[in-house]
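G., before I forget:
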Amino acid sequence: MDISLSHVDYRYQVNTPFERLAIQDVSIDIPSGTYMAIIGHTGSGKSTVLQHLNALLVPSEGVVAIGNREIKAHQKNKNLRQVRQRVGIVFQFPEHQLFEETVEKDIMFGPMNFGVTEAEAKKRALIALKQVGLAEEILEKSPFDLSGGQMRRVAIAGVLAMDPDVLVLDEPTAGLDPRGRKEIMEMFYALHKERQLSTILVTHSMEDAASYADQIVIMQQGKVVKQGTPEEIFSSPADLVRMGLDVPEVVRFQLKLEEKWGTKFEKIFLSIDQLSAAIAKQLGRGVES
Amino acid sequence: MMEKMIFGRYVPADSLIHRLDPRSKLTLIFLFVCIIFLANNWQTYAIIGIYTFLLIGLSRIPIRFLYGGLKPVLWLVIFTFLLQLFFTREGHLVFHWGVVKIYEEGIRMGFFISFRFFFLILMTSLLTLTTTPIEITDGLETLLAPLKKVRFPVHEMALMMSISLRFIPTLMQETDKIMKAQIARGVEFASGPIKDRIKAVIPLLIPLFVSSFKRAEELAIAMEARGYRGGEGRTKYRQLSWKWGDTLQLVLLVIITILLILFRS
């Protein structure tokens, strides 16, 4: 399912002294099957953009197209449920949304709201639970007896069980340990590959954006300042540094090396393997080893 | 969703009202709540009205914002009006249609009581809109200090109040966040049959309770870690200062009170 934002503005708290333009003239195209990362500092408007992706916010100006549904400013937008079923959002700290008596019921909550039968929802709960790497025994436990990391996974399973076509992730690994972080990111990437799930990742982490995304959008002060493939984005690292953003470690290493040797590699490498191969070649030892 | 709520909210600005000492503002509100009961005819209500709107004007809170925030309460005011209108059975019969009987006194009482209600809401909102929660508690603590003599836990009360006021916006944000998360999971809060909508409150309330308890515990630990041991011997970082404006403001209130007494019937 394609999603596109064209010239979207969003104002918070219109007609109050707190009125604030959160995003301005944002245009982003997310064709079906894309893995897109949206990067920016706190307050850059990335979370606001995210909430437009399933009509939790309706733009103050502009149009958001989600599949064949158009959500326009200045009009009543009704029956947004179908849209919401197809776009699943994993919010920051999703474990805060858990409320049911058992893990199973909580995972079934989303699908059943969208009219799935109980039997089907049960089946989906089990599948989703396995997807997030939890054991079946947990189904009967109370979500509040679990550890923080497990709660996070249950909450993610609750979104996956809705069987969305598009998955929107808002800092899904915030507050997790490095291992849990990697596991969760790998899981989302696997889902993206297996099911051709469009994935939109909102993150601070350049590393994650560089290793998983095929498109990167950089936001600053409510505007899109840069948009392109990771190679394009990281090919001008000076821009990123000027915007106060980080460059992935691999790229940083490559740049240092280029400076030291006074040479240039043919392109920017985003993984350690690629870069080491290129270095080996440069050193004249070939890549056979 | 919750962004229009104005209760307990502070709007930063630099106005005469904002600059007043919280003690004088609290005294004002307390006395206002008392003297509003002096009003019992059109003239006295007009005095109260002019006074209220004068203070609102001086506070530089945009009227439109105030109106937006008070809209939900206006229904309550209108309800009060209707209740008085239909159920007061005194004075001349003005209107009679089936079982509906409206008396002169009903109209009068309807207007007066709903006005009283309305002005009270306006003034109390004005206090929180122009005074930071911390100022309010500091003011209260100083004003109530004499009660310590009778072992009333003034400091603890003030602390409880400041904590609850402080967490209203946080709770609002949290509500908004969880609401959105549940909407994304297919809950309908704003449409659908009443039965479903009432049910929809559960996935909102339970996470809110859980996070509030968690937050309370964390706060208690953080306070103890920083050596909090109650109010005994505690000094204040913010010193309150009573200025001539505060005295003047109370003088104005006294004048209003005298006017009310003169004009009431």
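Chain B is about 70% helix and 5% strand. The first strand of chain B starts at residue 93 and ends at 97.

More on Monday.
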